[in-house]
Amino acid sequence: MRETDKQIATHQLKCISKIKVFLLALICAYISKTLSGSFLNSILTQLERQFNLSTTLVGLINGSFEIGNLLLIVFVSYFGTKMHRPMLIAMGCMTMGIGCFLQSLPHFLMDPYEYETTVSKTSNSSSNFLCIRKETQIITPTEDPSDCTNEVKSSMWLYVLVGNIIRGIGETPIKPLGISYIEDFAQTENSPLYIGCLETGSIIGPLIGFLLASFCVEMYVDIGSVNTDDLIITPSDTRWVGAWWLGLLVCAGANVLSGVPFLFLPKSLPKVVLETNKNIIEEEERSESKTEKRDISIDFFPLMKSLFCNRIYVLFLVTSILQFNAFVIVFSFLAKYMEQQYGISVSEAIFLMGIYNLPPVCFGYLAGGFIMKKFKINMKQAAYIAFGLSLLDYFLNMSCFSIICDNSPVAGLTVSYEGTQQNEYMERNVLTDCNIDCNCQDKIWDPVCGDNNLSYMSACLAGCETYFGTGVNMGFQNCSCIKSSKNASAFLGLCSSRPACSLMLQYFLILSAISSFIYSLAAIPGYMVFLRSLKPKEKALGVGLHMLCTRILAGIPAPIYFGVLIDYTCLHWGTLQCGKSGACRIYDSTNFRTMYLGLSTILKGVSYVPALLIVFILRKHYQPSESNTTMMEVVVKRNENEDKDINKQLVYLKDEEILTKF
């Protein structure tokens, strides 16, 4: 008897050790996949400038990850559990690494980045960027269409698009197969703890991703091959492109390394049980097998009919699609919004996003779970809590409309040359009496800030006749368009934002942190309502359909159609050598704010209509038998197979929510 107990203890130790190794490897995979996702989301502005893309195409790149994910999600969901799951996860991690490397490849195939400027880098002649009134030749960009066709970078963005699709394909098996492996071979009482560890990894990854992006964007894209002392732009300039490729190489290495441990893990592990419970477990497994066979034989269409006849499920699905659209819009373009609205660099915006938004989300999830357990919240109460907190979050976000900061005044674009506000419908013209005979290039974006605190599109358009200094310290004098100062001088770059903008930025960040906490606090009660609305046999199909609909109707189209709307708010597009438009340099901050906050507010506002109907339905048809039991207590009363199913679907929803938000 003692030998048998000793063998069981030894076997149990080995099994626990292997499952913990798998858990540690899966946590690393979660961190690496969310790291690469958050990093790419943070450098979208850099890709826009590097490849001279419109925001519409950048939105397409952002949504391409979901396209790749959808290509294999059905295969993985139905057949992955019957195959070597650790091996499939390893292949997925390495495929993500290949995707990240492919996204960084354009940097090594392209010539050094050239930003548009009127300042000559190779000649001492000042005629390229100063007002020379006696000059008769007007310097304009070349109009040979072959210049655009021959530019290698004109199609290099397709590498980023394809790489993101491949990254989406690689991410597919990590989440469902990892969770099912833990559920199958870990002790039942340990599964919630292990799943909690995975959720922690899902928060750590984006935090590292935001910090990495902030670090990389601060460095110049061609660092090491270009003398940065010769640059006339700074990270706060809208022509600046950071070292986006460097972070993608880091993400590629992290994903490949995270897949290595899975190569050495077995296809399956023996279930850890005591000898006295062996017969019971074997009987349950046989029953489980029979149930699976019956479930497979069930016709697909009756289940679909049952789901769409479930009013709560349908209403929750509509609510999720509307709110996910709003979340994708908000977090995909948050860095761009902060840069344009409050006049900070992209690097600073990314850093502040990570610091102010991710920790509150983590604390919100923990607090939500604690409240549900501590106060034994039932389904009806959970619906009230989720709706009330979400509505509070909605009203907080609406207050962002009052946290405003106007455009930096640019002569000829946002204000007249006298400094008065331009009429929105007034034709913008950067040529006026003070620079009409200067033979200036009127499309090149090379801004200078006059000592009258008014920006001009270039030193020539400011009427400047002389210059001093080099690099970013270059200055200009005798500027005929700067009439309100005695020196009539200007310096490179847009004028800095007013002190009031810094204060508004702090208000916005604090409000964003509070909003993130309230949102995540309401998430757990929302999951509970969703799960309890489904019958056991409907859960797998119901959750899968939920994920499919939110990705197809929110994750893919939202960044694309919102990118189109953002492009309409552009005040001035960059100019390529062939004369075609490049990336947008400055947006109308008022219209941008209206689009960014207004569209997300409308989508979330409409989503409360089906959410309110859910509350009314539960109020009338709620089952009192569940009034004094928590979700966990209800699950304990069910059989082990159903318990596993609920835990799996809960994690799927959590991961989907975090992925959509970050």
UniProtKB/TrEMBL annotation:
Chief location bin: membrane
Any Pfam family: OATP
Domain called Major facilitator superfamily (MFS) profile: residue spans: 22-623
Membrane topology, record value: Multi-pass membrane protein
Segments traversing the membrane: 21-40, 60-80, 87-105, 243-265, 312-337, 349-371, 383-404, 507-531, 543-566, 595-618
GO BP, one annotated term: sodium-independent organic anion transport
Keywords: Cell membrane, Disulfide bond, Ion transport, Membrane, Transmembrane, Transmembrane helix, Transport
A cellular-component GO term for this protein: basolateral plasma membrane
GO terms for MF: bile acid transmembrane transporter activity; sodium-independent organic anion transmembrane transporter activity
Domain Kazal-like: 428-483
PANTHER family in UniProt: ORGANIC ANION TRANSPORTER, SOLUTE CARRIER ORGANIC ANION TRANSPORTER FAMILY MEMBER 1A2
Family stated for the protein in its record: Belongs to the organo anion transporter (TC 2.A.60) family.
Protein name stated in the entry: Solute carrier organic anion transporter family member
Classification of source organism: Eukaryota, Metazoa, Chordata, Craniata, Vertebrata
